[in-house]
Write a structure and sequence with these properties.
single chain; mainly beta; Beta-galactosidase, Chain A, domain 5; Immunoglobulin-like; 2 domains
Amino acid sequence: MTSRRTFISSTSAAAALAALGVPLDVLAAGRIKLGKPAGFSFENLIEQARVAATQAYKPQARPPADILEKIDYEEHGKIKFNTDSALYAKGPGQFPVTFFHLGRFFQSPVHMYTLEGAGAEAQAREILYDESYFDMPKSSPARKLPRGSGFAGFRFQESRTADQKAKDWRSNDWVAFLGASYFRAIGDEYQYGLSARGVALNVAVADGPEEFPNFTHFYFEAPADNSTTVTVYAMLDGPSITGAYKFIMHRNEGVVMEIDSALFLRKDVERLGIAPATSMMWYSETFKGTGVDWRPEVHDSDGLAIWNGQGEHIWRPLNNPGRTTASAFGDKNPRGFGLLQRDRDFNNYQDGVHYERRPSLWIEPLDGWGDGSVQLVEIPTDDEIHDNIVAMWVPAAKATAGSSYRLRYRLHWLKDEPYPTPLARCVATRMGNGGQPGQNRPQNVRKFMVEFKGAPLENLAFGELPEAVLSTTRGKFSYVFTEAVPNGVPGHWRAQFDLTVDGDEPVDLRLYLRHKNQTLSETWLYQYQPFKTRTVYGS
C-alpha cells in the first residue's frame, strides 16, 4: 500500500542552442540545458521496449542513497522549481512544463527530452539536470547531489490564457507524473485526487510482492501555439515488464487523455493490471466505526462503475475491508469502467481539502480488449494518507514471459462519468443493525438502505412502487420493501432489506429496481464483510 502524502543561462549556452536550431522562445529563454540531438519516433521507442524485454533487467543508476535519504518530506517541500526555467514558458498560450526534484520518496531518476521536428525529421534532446533550475535553501541536502543527477517527474502548468478559475499558471498545474508509473490530473473542479498508473503488477498476490515498474524516459512534443493539447511519450521498465506509451492530453473542461501503449513481459505475471486506477476509501455513509474521526466521510472515490460488454451499468460501492479482498467482474470487450466520486455535497465531508471536488476517473477502451475481468482490490486502512483501492482490467489469458500487448484507451478525468446510464443511479448505500426499532435486535442481521435517483423513478404513477430485485451468494433476506425518500425530491427512492448471515466470509449482494418487467435502475453490487462489521459494531 503506497503512501499518497509522502510524497543555461550564459551567452555561450544560448548561442550553442541557437546553432542546434532550438527555438529559444519556445524553451525557457535559453535557461534549459540540452544534450546532443538524436533521432526519435514512437515506432522506434516501441522497438526499444521490445528488445529490452529480451534482455536482463538493469535498474537505472541512482545518485547516492545517503544524500537522497536526507531529502525527506520536509526538505523536499522546500525545493521549488523556478518557473523562469519552465519548458515552453515563452510560447503564446502554451502549457509550461516544470520538474520535480529527487528525494527520499522519489529516488529513481527520470530522463526528460524535448522533441523538435516531426516524422522522420524528429530529434530528441535530453534536458540536463542542473540545480540552478530549483530554488532551495543554501543548507539543502540536494546541493550535495552530483551534477546531472536527474529529475523525479514533471507537471504541466496551466496556460497563461487558461480559464481565470485556474489563476496564475506558475502556481497551478493540471497533470503530474511522479513516482514509478503514477500520474494524475485535475478534473473540472480543479482538484487532484485519485491516481492512474501505466500498469499494475501482482497487486494483492499472496505469493509475491507487488512490483512497481518505472517510467524511465519522457519525451515532450513542442505544443502548438494556443493549443489545448499536449503530447508526451514514455518508456516503461521494470524487472518483469517493459513498455512504450504515447499520451495525447487534452485540457478542456476537465482532462481527457488518449493513451497508446505497447507492453512486453520479461517474466510471468500472476495479475497483470491494465489501465489501473488507484484511490483512497477510508469511510463513507455506508460504514463508519464509532469515534473514527470527526468528519462524516473521508474518501477520494466512493464507488466502482462498470459499463460492461452486454450494456449493463453496474455500481459497486467501495469498502475499507477488515482484510485485503479482490473482486473480479468477468466481461468481454468492456465499454468502460472507473472509480467515481458521486457524492458532491460539502456537508457530507466538512473538510477544507474538499473531497467533494475530487475528480472521477473513467477508463474507456478504444479497441476490443477481449475476455477478462474488471478487478477491484480493497486493502484495509486506518487513515486517509494511504491509497488502498485499485481498479484495473485483467486479461483472461495468462500473462507469461514473452507475451506482448498493444492497447489503446482513453482516460476521462471529470466530476462524472462521460457516458452516464439513462437509468436511475445509486446515490447512497447505508447500513445498520437489523431488526425493528423498539424490539430486541437479532444477532447476525444487518439492515441495508440503498438509494436510487433518476428519471425512470420520476415517471412512476401515483401509488406505484418499484420492485427490489435482490440476490445473494449466501444468507437470507427479510423485511424487504421500497419507498420514496421523504425529502420531496422527485425520483429519489430507496430499497430496504435485512440480511441474515452466519460466518465471517464475504457476501456478494445484487440489487436493481424494476416495475412491470421494466428495469428502472442500474445494478447495485456490494460485498458485505461480516468480519469487519462485527469488529466495529460488536454485534
